[in-house]
Amino acid sequence: MPSREMCLQCKGRGFCGEKCVVLERFTQKQKSFDLIKGTDFNGLTPPGVFVSWKSYPNSSVSALSTPLNSDEVSLMDKEEQWFGLKSDKIVSMRQQLIGSSKKIDVNNAVNPSRELSLMQEIALSKSKVDLEVELMHKPVSTLNFNELTSPVGAFAEAKKITLTENPKTFSKAEYIVSDTDVKALDGTMELMKADLPLSFIQKIFSVGLLGQKKKRKIVPTRWSITALDSGISEKLIQEEILFNSLIDSFQVFESKYLDNHLLILLMPFNWSFELIELWSKGGVWTKDASEHAVSHDFEFQKGRKNYASSTQGAYYAVRLALAQHLSEKKKQAAGIIFRKIGSGYDIPLGVWVVRETAKDALKKQPLEFNELNLALKFIENRLGEKEFNLLKSKAIVLKETGKQKKLMEFN
User: How distant, in Å, are the alpha carbons of 100, 238, 242 from that of 232?
Assistant: First the structure.
């Protein structure tokens, strides 16, 4: 069994071998197989596509669909609409999806093959689509979990996939996708301004529909999620937030979901950001630990030069939520996110959990304080003294803003 430190750093990325001994515990048999007779079925796609990072650059690109015909199909791949659902409900929905896969070279996006064009049609659809699927063999009946993406599984190589209706898409998306001169991030920002769902943008980016023609590539789902969270938030910070006026008080926002407890502290100082996580013993990555574990990453005005390797995708997901909030308010602040993950978060469901929990917190009216110490005392009371002190001991941004505060008081 790998060490607690390795598990917390790796979070299922295979540092200790090909199979993750932690995630293996959560593999579950899927429900939808009873409805498949042989290897063919008629079904619906939510719409959904998934690109595996394994065997990159010859990646497995899958159309996600279900033989079940229910009102829930449209919800099965829309993470923005899952907040508030219980984990077993989310698992139940994802259990119904089957991935019909084709191996496609990532550079194929420059001149898409028939197989990739079909996957792109699915990704572009704004509503569920009927299809017919012929598989080479019956899918392996398991559902797999990881820290970045929603639960996925039950994949089988596709012999043929046929759409039995014409997908409908967003006119703005059609326009951006057809513009082969616009850069991927610029196109993404246009789609965000049009209020298109982040999950939709992530899918069309993943199947190589965004960017300048010669630079378009297929991007594995787990990489595309972090790429968009990082790219969008960086753009908002560098082009908007750094030029905004400061907030005029210390603000605390709070939300709790699936035993993820978030307290967001905003301070009236120049932009800086930090995510500090406390993984309670007995949790997903600390199952056999005898004590809590802390991970953290941070940045100042100049941003980060390397990947946030400690908190990983969660860092960029929460940074996006905060950047969107400050952009909407036309304000600037230093932000510290205190995240306490309890043992009740016992199945990893994807980075969307922390992103949507942060968004929920920031929708609420904050508690405002005139002094930093009062704000910190409130956070301590909410998290518990021991847990708060563990988190605070790692808070680099808090130490630096404390210096700013003293300098301002001196002047």
Answer: 30, 10, 15
Question: Which of 370, 404, 408, 353 lies closest to 151 in space, CA to CA?
Answer: 353
Nearest to residue 147, comparing CAs of 350, 386, 296, 2?
350
The full set of domain ranges for the chain reads 26-163, 171-219, 241-410
Would you say the pTM of this structure is higher than 0.85? yes
Question: Which amino acid belongs to residue 387?
Answer: E
d(CA 156, CA 241): 45
Give the residue from 165, 175, 227 showing the smallest Cα distance to 196.
175
Chain length of the chain: 411
Model pLDDT, residue 403: 62
- The topology under which CATH files domain 26-163 is OB fold (Dihydrolipoamide Acetyltransferase, E2P) (2.40.50)
187: left (phi over 0), alpha (psi -120 to 50) or beta: alpha
Q: Are 153 and 30 in contact (CB under 8 A)?
A: yes
> Average pLDDT of the chain?
90
pLDDT digits (tens, 9 = 90+) for 239-260: 999 999 999 999 999 999 999 9
Residues 67 and 43 sit within 8 Å (Cβ to Cβ): yes
Distant-in-sequence, close-in-space partners of 310: CB < 8 Å, separation ≥ 6: 9, 295, 296, 297
User: Do 262 and 354 meet the contact criterion of CB atoms below 8 Å apart?
Assistant: yes
pLDDT tens, 90-115? Answer: 998 998 899 999 999 999 999 999 99
**pLDDT tens-place string over residues 344-376:** 998 899 999 999 999 999 999 999 999 999 999
DSSP state of 154: -
Distance of alpha carbon 355 from alpha carbon 225, whole angstroms: 11
Concatenated DSSP letters of 23-84: GGGG-B--SGGGG-BTTEEEEEESS-EEE-STTTTEEEEEEEEBS---TTGGGTT-GGG-TT
Residue 40 Cα distances to 137, 197, 315, 364, 377, angstroms: 9, 31, 41, 48, 60
Token pair listed for 108: 């194929």
